[in-house]
Write a structure and sequence with these properties.
Helix content is 0%, strand content 51%. The mean pLDDT is 95. The chain is globular, with a radius of gyration of 13 Å. Strands 2, 4, 5, 6, 9, 10 and 11 form a seven-stranded mixed beta sheet that branches. A hairpin with a 6-residue loop joins strand 4 and strand 5. The protein is mainly beta and 124 residues long.
Length: 124
């Protein structure tokens, strides 16, 4: 069974931190690019950050550069998103997804698997 499960969301004060986890199972972790996406009410889903352990590459949306850090633990098949200096505009449902593309894609159709999402709420 292929599965992605997010955890770590919650309510945090502006300026605070959260670490999200995306636990993958049922597929070869190194063959996939893992992306974090978020969607706020009334807004389109946007890509936040991406990682390829095989390529040793990461990428961040401009809106989170310098505040968020993506990392992976291949022994646990888990990708993390460390979120610091959180802002109210970071409030959204955060989901992770996996694609077999050579590198990341902002086209959601390229992602084969999606988690259910975890809610992040940043109070002002």
């Amino acid at each position: 069974e292929v599965q992605l499960v997010e955890s770590g969301g919650g309510l945090v004060q502006a300026g605070g931190s959260l670490r999200l986890s995306c636990a993958a199972s049922g597929f070869t972790f190194d063959d996939y690019v893992i992306g974090w996406f978020r969607q706020a009410p009334g807004k389109e889903r946007e890509g936040v950050s991406y990682i390829s352990s095989r390529l040793g590459r990461t990428r961040y949306a401009d809106s989170v550069k310098g505040r968020f850090t993506i990392s992976s633990d291949n022994t646990k098949n888990t990708v993390y998103l460390q979120m610091n200096s959180l802002k109210p505009e970071d409030t959204a449902v955060y989901s992770c997804a996996a694609t077999r593309s050579s590198w990341y894609s902002e086209n959601f159709g390229y992602y084969d698997y999606w988690g259910q999402g975890t809610q992040v709420t940043v109070s002002s």
